[in-house]
Design a protein that fits this description.
Blueprint (H helix, E strand, L loop, with lengths): L10 E5 L11 E7 L2 E8 L7 H5 L4 H9 L6 H15 L6 H30 L3 H21 L8 E2 L2 E2 L7 H23 L3 H7 L7 H6 L4 H6 L6 H4 L20 H25 L17 H6 L1 H13 L6 E9 L2 E9 L5 E7 L1 H6 L2 H5 L4 H11 L3 H4 L2
Antiparallel strand pairs: 1-2, 2-3, 4-5, 6-7, 7-8
């Protein structure tokens, strides 16, 4: 009696972009053996706007708001990268007070990012309450954004040469009050999650990445530190005033999803510590460059100096002219190393730009780190990578 040999194929499942855990614009084609993932084919492109090409058509100040819309969860970190790159390209030295204000809002932005990352991850796993608590805290930070810039999200507050405007009266006092009560909000989230049996079962041992794998996969930020890599650009290549501030870099042991969660919690506590030091030490002074050939900040100078008036007119009609140069500049954004490679040809527009988005580097490892896990673990893994598609699919 002859038996027919049957070829058993793996089951193909389409995950996203409609799936709520797929961030709206991520499509994954899963190859499954039962519920075990064998392979993932990652499709992006549903959000693509061609930001890098758009930047070549805009002058410097017109290009700045595009960066707010890259990682739209940590807006000021993105606009700071662009402003910092322009300053390095043109050798601008900004006032000390402006540097303090920048770092103050960069650390508030780090908290803003991690609150969303942890709590939306918790929703993916099944815990709703942390998000309800965290969004109240995020609302307070967005109010700080609004008080300095007029906008809750896309602030365009950090600009080449400094910041747009000085801090309004009473803001530092309100931020200090926020810092004092925020640690108790972190404690509440930890009480609900950190020792929760279900939370630990869903995260511990999931997507373990060791020290060497993290380097090979191009991991930066929280993901690299969770794998035991002691790397933070704020320490290794300090910018603004990070060399004047003492803070700790948390690192993980197991390199799994639980370690990544713990490091984000610890980083928020460190950010609170940095913010308090800035509030205590912030100096008086200018908040942008006081050079009439770059920015005109003195109205009296405009009326009495024809040269100043000419420069003022050219700045506001043409924008800043970049030196003929090329630079790669990177900062420690909340999601990891965010970099900008900018080539300028001496005009008021970038000749070429290339953005290094940490989310793109982390997403490309998804197939590698999910093999052998179950579909339910895929949701956990995507959440712990902290991906925002504004920067991934730019």
């Amino acid at each position: 009696m002859k038996y027919k040999i049957k070829n058993i194929h793996h089951f193909i499942l389409n995950f996203g972009p409609q799936h709520p855990s797929a961030h709206g614009v991520l499509r994954l084609i899963l190859e499954l053996d039962g519920e075990i993932i064998q392979n993932i084919d990652c499709h992006i492109g549903l959000l693509h706007r061609g930001t890098e090409k758009l930047l070549e058509q805009k002058n410097v100040l017109q290009a700045l708001p595009y960066f707010d819309r890259l990682d739209y969860v940590s807006m000021m970190a993105q606009e700071h990268l662009f402003s910092y790159t322009i300053e390095i390209c043109n050798n601008y030295i900004i006032p000390l007070r402006a540097k303090y204000i920048r770092v103050l809002f960069l650390e508030l932005t780090r908290i803003l990012n991690h609150l969303l990352s942890i709590t939306t991850h918790a929703i993916d796993v099944g815990a709703l309450t942390p998000m309800l608590w965290a969004f109240e805290e995020r609302e307070k930070i967005m109010e700080f954004y609004e008080r300095v810039s007029g906008a809750r999200m896309h602030a365009a507050y950090i600009r080449p040469g400094g910041v747009f405007s000085d801090l309004p009266v009473g803001l530092l006092n309100d931020i200090f009050i926020f810092c004092n009560q925020f640690n108790s909000r972190i404690n509440e989230m930890e009480e609900l999650l950190t020792n929760n049996r279900i939370w630990k079962q869903r995260l511990i041992g999931i997507a373990k990445i060791n020290y060497r794998e993290a380097q090979d996969l191009g991991y930066t930020g929280v993901l690299s530190r969770a794998s035991g890599l002691l790397w933070d650009i704020r320490k290794k290549n300090p910018y603004e005033i990070y060399n004047l501030i003492s803070f700790k870099i948390p690192i993980g042991i197991n390199g799994d999803s639980f370690d990544r969660y713990l490091i984000r919690i610890y980083e928020m506590r460190q950010s609170i510590s940095i913010i308090k030091k800035i509030i205590n030490d912030i100096p008086n002074g200018l908040i942008k460059i006081n050079d009439n050939k770059v920015f005109n900040t003195s109205k009296s100078e405009t009326y009495f100096s024809m040269e100043s008036l000419i420069h003022h007119f050219k700045i506001y009609s043409e924008g800043i002219h970049l030196y003929k140069n090329h630079n790669y500049v990177c900062v420690e954004a909340p999601k990891g190393e965010t970099g900008l490679y900018l080539i300028s040809d001496g005009t008021n527009k970038p000749y070429r730009t290339k953005i290094r988005a940490p989310g793109f580097m982390h997403l490309q490892s998804l197939n590698y780190i999910t093999k052998g896990h179950m579909i339910a673990d895929l949701v956990t893994i995507i959440g712990t990578l902290d991906i925002v598609f504004g920067e991934v699919d730019r």
